[in-house]
Design goal:
The structure is a single chain. This protein is mostly helical. It has one domain. The protein contains 9 helices and 2 strands; from the N terminus they run αααααααααββ. A two-stranded antiparallel ribbon has the order 1-2. Helix 2 packs antiparallel against helix 4. It is globular and about 50 Å long.
Length: about 200
């Protein structure tokens, strides 16, 4: 089966993350090396999930996860957050919002299929936005904790934090609207069925 071109883009971002890790190591920035290694590991989670469970995740998930983590690692190690402030940061948050929202959409559909819950379309759409904003809230808490106790400079005031959250919200709304449109054309069972692997391949 031919792999989608988007998967090769995901592999490219993984290679670029690894290159950033080696750069950070050469500069003795060991905290960034650790962050980069963790990020590289996270990019491999969708593939690991696909291999271990009877599901096949959309290739867009691999690409978005790899892209989001690459933007974060490059922003830290190559200094893009400072060089292109505030635009790089807001774009990174926007794409992260899209990534988390797509993951939330996939996860909630699979949970609906394999559990006894029976979610309506609007509950699914609402979950997408709630999940993205919850993740952004935890991220901002993480930044505040690091700035407060480790002396980093991740947050740049209330306006910066609010714009970060708004960027994520815009990405989440975009995915929620797309998900709602998708659910109006196909049932949630049909969409989830496309990700479930049977003996003959993905169900359709």
């Amino acid at each position: 089966m031919k792999r989608p071109a988007g998967l090769y883009l995901a592999y490219l971002f993984q290679i670029l993350i690894a290159a950033n890790v080696f750069l950070a190591f050469s500069l003795s920035e060991y905290s960034q090396v650790f962050t980069g290694v963790v990020a590289l590991g996270l990019t491999m989670v969708p593939t690991a999930v696909t291999r271990r469970l009877s599901i096949t995740l959309p290739w867009e998930v691999n690409l978005l996860v790899a892209l989001s983590l690459y933007l974060h690692i490059s922003g830290e190690i190559l200094g893009y957050y400072d060089i292109y402030y505030p635009y790089y940061d807001k774009i990174a948050h926007f794409i992260s919002g899209i990534t988390v929202s797509v993951l939330a959409f996939v996860i909630v559909l699979l949970l609906d299929r394999f559990s006894r819950i029976n979610l309506s379309r609007w509950m699914i759409v609402g979950f997408i936005i709630i999940a993205a904003m919850a993740m952004e809230g935890f991220w901002e808490i993480y930044e505040w904790l690091f700035d407060t106790f480790l002396g980093t400079d991740l947050q740049h005031g209330l306006d910066d934090t609010m714009l970060d959250m708004i960027s994520v919200l815009v990405g989440a709304i975009a995915v929620a609207l797309a998900g709602n449109r998708y659910l109006s054309r196909f049932s949630k069972e049909e969409i989830a069925g496309m990700m479930v692997v049977s003996d003959e391949g993905p169900a359709g």
